[in-house]
Fold Protein DETOXIFICATION.
Amino acid sequence: MREETNPQTPIHGFHIEQQNNNHEFIHEKFINEAKMQLGLALPLIVVNMLQYSLQVISIMFVGHLGKLSLSSASMATSFAAVTGFSVLLGMGSALETLCGQANGAKQYHMLGVYTQRAILTLLAVSIALAVIWYNTSFILVTLGQEKDISSGAGEFNRWMIPGLFAYGILQCLIRFLQAQKIVVPMMIISGMTAIFHIFMCWLFLFKIKLGSRGAALANAVSYWINVLLLALYVKFSTACAETFTGFSREAFNGILGFLRLAIPSAIMICFEYWSFEMVVLLSGRLPNPKLETSVLSISLNTCWMVYMISVGLGGAVSTRVSNELGAGNSQRARLAVYVAAAIATSEGLIIGTSTILVRHVWGKLYSNDKEVIRYVAKIMPLLALSDFLDGFQCVLSGAARGCGWQTLCAFINLGAYYVVGIPSSVVLAFVFHKGGKGLWTGIILALSVQSVALIIVNLCTNWDDEVVKAGDRVQATRGAQEDTADAQ
């Protein structure tokens, strides 16, 4: 009996070693996923910032033409974002679900079909949006805006109408390449376009002397240049040889199916975008409208710049989730969401801290008015909190697009922004007289509700069921294409 060994000792040691190995394995998977997402996100962040810079560069050039031109161009750009760009951006985002899951399922030819179908749909929608842009001046005057500014804004948007069609195609091509993790070429092409755009603005405004119309035309030309360069890459690159095999008649089939995903996707994006613009409009009704509007405009511009980082992170997790669901890897899809949430939290803390640290100097970049600078410093802590929440929800929204939850997210955004956010902004600003701080606090409440709702949805998700849904979506489309081919 004395010579017997304790059987628990080696087993216990084995369990400890096994647990350590499991922890190391999970840690390694987490790190690898983070590397993949950051590898996708960083170029996408640059792409988004460069494309956003086109409008900023145009406004900067127009600013040298005088206050009326600057006011008109700013209003035109805001109107164009609300009535055109946000709609096309949202509808194009449906491809994050379709192309991402098809790529994961190795149905490579379907990426080209989906993209062509989306381009056809967005071009048709652009015709209706172009009618709205053509009547910009009339709409703004009807809404009570100043006549001279509205007239200039109307002229600006009319000259930018050709760019509307290019912008729709551009969103489709970006999603097509993003789903395949082809992001560096997009970054290079966006950089080339931005440099070319500076030259076009200088040429049209100061050499050809088209005035603010030249800036609008430069926007349109630059969007088309971007589309042309991306299209040439897709056509001749070996990286897209399997996913784009030429123009297909299959693109004309299943447009209604695409709209069932694209319309909720557009509503999801627009509900969020419009609420921020609405806050700036409401600031014009406050007791000191010039000060409030100036400060909230600075806040919104700052928010959009930071938002480009979140959009890149959201695009990365959308690609990872959709690819893994299409490939049938439920656990990897879930891991991608958790990793993205961790990255977003870290990014939000860094951005939030930086925002608070620069609060006393940030206003000086936009204005020499001491009152504006002091007000900006006071509102920056609120902006830091909103940047943190906005980044977090943007990443979770990206995961939702990867799963195809656009309809659910549209309802979440409706409740967050228009049941909680905007009413809270109105009450705080006009009932409790909190001014611009009250308006922005309403946005923070909306972002909080949206973030909590998305967290709950992700925690309650059965990822095995999502794999089945992704498979059904891909197979349904594949079956429809085969039926069409048999009929032909």
Summary: The chain has 16 helices and no strands.
